[in-house]
Amino acid sequence: MVKGKFTLLLLGVVLGGVAALYSVNFGTGLPMETAFAAARQQSAGSEKVYLPIIKDFDPDAIPGLPPGSYFEKFTGAPANATPWNGDGLDITIHNRDQDQLYSMTPMQAQHGGNCSGPDNTHTVSNYNDVVFQCRNHLMTATYGLSEYGGYSMIYLTPAYIVDTSGDFMVSFDVSTFVTNPGRDWIDLWISPYDDNLQLALDEWLPDVQGEPRNALHFKLTQDSTWFVEQIRNGNLQELNSSYVRRTDAVEPSKSVRTTHMLIVQGNRMRFGIPDEDMWWYDGPVPSFIRNWNGAVVQIGHHSYTPDKDCSGAACGPNTYHWDNIAVGPGQHMTMIKADKRLVSNTTNHTLVFDEPAPANSHLRFSGVGEDLEVSFDGGSTWQNAQLQKSRIGQTREHFKSYWTPIPAGTTSVRFRGGNWWGGEWAARDATIWSRVVPSGDLGFDPYSAAGKPMFSQSIPVDTPAFNNDLFDQIDELGAFCEN
């Protein structure tokens, strides 16, 4: 067998009197597990057989991830919807409304409180509950309420610095059901480590401080296409090579999580859904990313008055279902979490961190108010919290992203500031970041030869309908991972 390749033959699939032969040849950077073996699931009197998706794109052209890459598969099936506190992700939860500084407007998040199926719901109103786990995957649920002209967002940031100087990949699986496409959406940011914005957002939206100075941005739009752009030294440029609608190939689903992938290989960059051979960008690699000294990946869920400008029962805030976030190659990084997510004028002003800060670390947080300051020695001395530069200027009444050097060995930080015209000062979602590779348990699964093959998704096929139109039906079916 040629190194880095395997050939899988699924022979003699006989369903409804029809036999088929499949041969799939993948070029990878890893040994692949035999994920195309037929898996059977009994349900309501019918039997489902899971078969590989076969499409026109050339799998030999897609690299695998090397051992040591980031891979979070959210393993765990708790009896109840359980807040996610894994160390492998930095979680930012933002809401612009001062009235919702401490708790959010209640919403119905998908999956029952006992983790029953996604058509069931449970009420969330505490920020600690909006990123939660059920059935071996992760959910995000957020609500920018119309009554307050609201805007809210959640960012998931892997504890990993991707090396953009050569070939690399970013991959995630996500549900495709959308409540209000123009007002509840997801996106992906890749920006230099030193330019990362905790609250990255399009300039034209009514909150925070705009885009990073340098980035690649991929955003799901109201037309069910992905908008692709680059930001280079503050200059935006659209990159799309296609505006195909995702709904043309993928059925909206709460339970099926479809793989979206950014692949940079040689001089070619692609972003899309490999299983559908659907690419919103397929062209040259933007050359400026090669000079980044490591990059940060942020996966976002945005909610901007989702009960506005739409009709029907589906309107309102959405829940997205995530799984199998993979990034590499690069290096793992240190992210140290605090004992609570918020300090403000009316709370205790001190955050205590799980571990001492390594050398050359930064304190990363979002904040609002006048003249925010931090103390690393219990209040004996103070210094201005340093704003992270963004593509546009700062807006006084908006939350801002802060990126402040912190002395090695620091385990607690005190905050102070002045209240602003709309309310009290606040700082939230603080972590200590360092390029130092952590030792011991990473809190997630580093990608290894035993990890998930990146290109082996399978689709459910109902036996009674699987007949002489075999190949046509496979092309028409959705992506993988039905609960």
Write structural notes for this entry:
It contains 1 helix and 35 strands. The model is unreliable at 1-62 and 449-483 (pLDDT under 50). The strands form 8 sheets. Strands 5, 6, 10, 11, 14, 19, 20, 21, 23 and 34 form a 10-stranded antiparallel β-sheet that branches. A 7-stranded antiparallel β-sheet has the order 7-12-22-15-16-17-18, with no helix packed on it. The protein starts with a strand and ends in a 7-residue tail after the last helix. It has 3 domains: 5-55 and 455-476, no CATH class; 70-333, Jelly Rolls, CATH 2.60.120; 336-434, Jelly Rolls (Sandwich), CATH 2.60.120. It has 483 residues and is mainly beta.
Number of strands: 35
Helix content: under 10%
What CATH first level of the largest domain would be assigned? Mainly Beta
Q: What best-fitting shape do the alpha-carbon axes yield?
A: globular
In this structure, how is the largest beta sheet organized? 10 strands, antiparallel
Terminal residue distance: 35 Å
In total, the number of domains comes to 3
Strand content: 35-45%
Quaternary structure of the protein: single chain
Report the uncertain regions.
Answer: 1-62, 449-483
- Under CATH, the topology of the largest domain can be stated as Jelly Rolls
Measured on Cα atoms, how large is the radius of gyration? 23 Å
Give keywords.
483 residues; Jelly Rolls; 3 domains; ten-stranded antiparallel beta sheet; seven-stranded antiparallel beta sheet; 1 helix; 35 strands; 42% strand; disordered C terminus
